[in-house]
Write a structure and sequence with these properties.
- This protein is of the alpha/beta class and 237 residues long.
- The protein folds into 2 domains: 16-142, Rossmann fold (3-Layer(aba) Sandwich), CATH 3.40.50; 163-225, Arc Repressor Mutant, subunit A, CATH 1.10.10.10.
- Helices cover 46% and strands 11% of the residues.
- The chain has a 5-stranded parallel β-sheet with strand order 2-1-3-4-5, sandwiched between helices.
- Helix 2 (50-60) packs parallel to helix 3 and helix 7 (171-181) crosses helix 9.
- It is elongated.
């Protein structure tokens, strides 16, 4: 999993606001008690179905939406599709009893920041929330390479024309981005391209700045979602 522990809000900062969307009232109440017992967290609303979740997010603009996939009236993925069109600040974390890899891939492509299983320990849920608040993705038990492969496969029939247009990426940066999509590490990239690891790190810093991401997983997802890929990622002649 890709995650970094964050710090809870202090009394001098605004609390992290959360909306819980789940069709089981007992589960919502228990989760509310857990979160409100955590310093710096404040549950500002809850919803019993997808349509209500959309309404609460629009009204309250929370920092985090904990969203169950299986709900009446509107499925979690349909809820995500609707919320994705709003481009709001809310970061969405799926909280579900089970999820198949294709569903997870679709959810991430629709803007979810990850998924936590309901059976997980409370500490794991809190860590996942801190992770998405820090702008990262929480991918649970899925390995990054498996997830990236699934995302590439889901888009394999789509055009990858105009790679890098609008982001001012150099040929070398496109090569490195393509290798990142393949889950290559810095040493592997350096060996593949015949450059030093220090140079790889320098290029990655520039790429992160240009496209507005902060982690390798975010960069890989960025490249896949926008179909930015350089077919020839070998060393320059």
């Amino acid at each position: 999993m890709m995650a970094s522990a964050g710090m809870a809000a202090t009394p001098s900062t605004a609390p992290v606001t959360i909306v819980i969307a789940d069709d089981h009232q007992i589960f919502r109440e228990g989760l509310r008690k857990l979160l409100e017992a955590t310093p710096g967290f404040r549950v500002v609303g809850d919803a019993a179905d997808g349509a209500e979740a959309i309404r609460k997010v629009r009204e309250l603009s929370p920092d985090v939406l904990l969203l169950d996939l299986s709900m009446p009236r509107m499925h979690g993925l349909d809820t995500l599709r609707d919320l994705a069109e709003q481009h709001g600040k809310t970061r969405i974390l799926l909280l579900t009893a089970e999820i198949e890899k294709p569903q997870l891939v679709t959810a991430l492509q629709l803007g979810a920041r990850g998924a936590v299983m309901k059976e997980s320990a409370s500490a794991l849920l809190l860590k996942a929330i801190y992770c998405v608040l820090n702008g990262e993705y929480w991918v649970g038990r899925e390995s990054v390479s498996d997830l990236i492969t699934a995302m590439r496969t889901s888009d394999q029939d789509k055009s990858r024309a105009n790679a890098g247009r609008g982001y001012q990426l150099t040929e070398r940066e496109l090569q490195i981005m393509t290798l990142i999509v393949g889950a290559a590490g810095n040493k592997e990239i350096a060996d593949k391209l015949g450059i030093s690891e220090k140079t790889v790190k320098h290029h990655l810093t520039n790429i992160f700045d240009k496209v507005g991401v902060s982690t390798r997983l975010e960069l890989a997802m960025f490249a896949i979602q926008r179909r930015i890929e350089k077919p020839d990622s070998g060393a320059d002649n």
